[in-house]
Amino acid sequence: MTGGSRYRTPGTRLWWSDVGEWIAAARKIDRRRLSQQRYRALQNHGGSMPRALIDLETDIDAIDDALDFLKYGPPGLARPQRGHRAKAAQTRIIMDLMNRRAALVCQIDDMPEGDNWIAARASLG
What is the pTM of this model? Predict the structure, then answer.
């Protein structure tokens, strides 16, 4: 998916315009040498995905990868432990991604059978 808007992770030089590019930026930050700056960059990146970007995403695999990073990724990027999640930015983003994924799956389930249906179902794995 190519979006019209470009977003920047605060405190970094990393720009992205869709969920797939957000994941690539997360991997780039995660490969950095362990430091306080890396941890801060991961924190900033973990809370930087806007709802408008999520609403435009059509790639279920990218959504699944982002959910994996936000749930189980490196400290700073991943959601906090239970009891500390209510105010964490990742919580809102995880919910928005899960809702978008459900909407996309629903659209595919309502699609009449045919060549497009087969291709769409194959992408769900």
Answer: 0.78
